[in-house]
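Quick log. Single chain, no ligands specified.
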Amino acid sequence: MTTSQAWEVLRHVPDPEIPVISVTDLGIVRDVTVDAGTVEVVVTPTYAGCPATEVIRTSIEQALRAAGAESVQISTRLDPPWTTDWIAPGARKRLREYGIAPPHALPLDEQPILFAPRRLPVECPRCRSDDTERLSQFGATACKAVYRCRTCREPFEYFKPL
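-> predicted structure:
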């Protein structure tokens, strides 16, 4: 297996929490190398305590082995920490189509923090209105908040910028 073949396999490994995007779309696969039959994958989880980390590691290993990799080594790199800036542009579109508002891009002079006191308008992924309200700081996972659109009245999750 070549490095480019390994990357191609990983492009089809879905994120376990948001199956419409892959682990490469999410930007958590940081590096892939192939040396002497061993595929080495470096992963940066979305946050250090992410409960999906082990599922992601297992999915990556299974996919690579199914594609013919003889040996797979997966390591975790926490520095630099993952940021929502690493989400691929096409993945942001698929998030919206799936019903999750993608994260805002933060200005370079702002520190990306999970609990930002200042809130930017969040556009409804269904009707595209920005007349929305936050119902909960936390959604199904710590990286998402729950919003409701005042226009179409539908609830939705917002992937918070980090």
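The first helix runs from residue 3 to 10.
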